[in-house]
Design a protein that fits this description.
Layout: E1 13-14, E2 29-33, E3 36-41, E4 52-58, H1 69-77, E5 81-85, H2 100-116, E6 120-130, H3 132-143, E7 150-154, H4 159-168, H5 178-187, H6 190-193, E8 202-207, H7 215-224, E9 229-234, H8 241-244, H9 246-262
Parallel strand pairs: 1-9, 4-5, 4-6, 6-7, 7-8, 8-9
Antiparallel strand pairs: 2-3, 3-5
Helix pairs in contact: 1-9, 2-3, 4-5
Length: 263
Amino acid sequence: MTATGVAGDTNPCVFGNTFAMLGTQSPAETGETGGIAWHLWTPDPEVHTGTRPAVLICHGGASRKEDHKSFGALAASKGWFALAYDSRGHGESRELAANCADLITDVEEMTSYLASRHRVDPTKVVVRGWCLGAKMALHAACRERGRIAGVIAISPMHEDGLKIAVTSKKFDVNIPDHDSVLSWIDENQLVDDIPSLADVPLLIQHAQGDKLVPISYSRTIFEAAGEPKRFIEVPEGDHRSGEHLPELQAESLDWMTGLLEER
């Protein structure tokens, strides 16, 4: 892996275009909480002793928890608990969301559940989201300062794109009442909420070649956020590049680990 940009807290870091995939690993536990199905990867207690940090994994629209098993396995190998869940209307979760606010509530409730698990340090629970999941994770972190210790946002869905997805039906967000989604989007602009994150660590990843969500949107969110923050830009790539690149998976966890250890 080579860095062709400046790797600072606030400066963009551009990584080499390596797309090798990590091997996958089955979760240690599977379950359901409040109708939300989840998979949990756990660190080896003999290698990683004491209480440990944890990361909640929020998938994108038309996706599911199984799509993130390589990241869950990697996180566990690095001493993290990792919980991926099926958002409402996706995978094995039973209920549909009435509106976007329900999806944010799910992030909050699953964060609380993960924080309650044995050996999880409740002060070190980070949320990682991709696309729609990244957008919901960021909104939740703005509302739940103190409970969410950091955010890793990968190609967060922008408001105009979400509107187009809903009205064109090209992208199923599995919320039957589309009018409620459109109203919610108008009333909840992420760039307006981001300053409330204050000192919550934020790492944004985005590929230059993303044709679904323009990288300029992530840069706008990044500029509006406070410190500490980091922007990782993937040369070329596509909408899913930042999600599955093992180099970026490891880099994001290592950066968060360093910040959490300072607290």
